[in-house]
IF rod domain-containing protein (Pleurodeles waltl), 146 residues
Amino acid sequence: MDALRRQQRSSDVNVEVDASPSRELSALLKEVREEYEAIIDKYRREAAVWLQQQAQALQHEEFTNSQAVEIGNKEELELKCIYQDPQIEFQSELSRKLSLERNLEETQCHFAEELERKQRTICQMEAELFDLRDELKRQQNAWRMR
């Protein structure tokens, strides 16, 4: 084992590396940082443009929607007026009809009572007329027999 140790101590190892000249690490880091910052700036600008476009699209959509809501509100108001006018007129005509029906009913009752009174009067007069006729016939017969 001693022999192996002596051999190891006396042998020299020669290592050669074929490498390009090394650059300084700080310069390399600076270059990489500049590349990434340029990429970040590019993406930041693109994101700002995209956000601006989205904001404009939303503003346009909001404007369009608010106009649609306004038009819808106006149409609703017009339809309410269109609906309410006939509804009011209908209610007025319905009240008028009910009033006329009550008047007709009262008039019919009044005429029915009047007709009943007149029929009673006619019946009484007819009875009196029959009585008078019978009386006249009796008197006529009595005069003839005399």
About this structure: The helical segments are 2-10, 25-144. The longest helix spans residues 25-144.
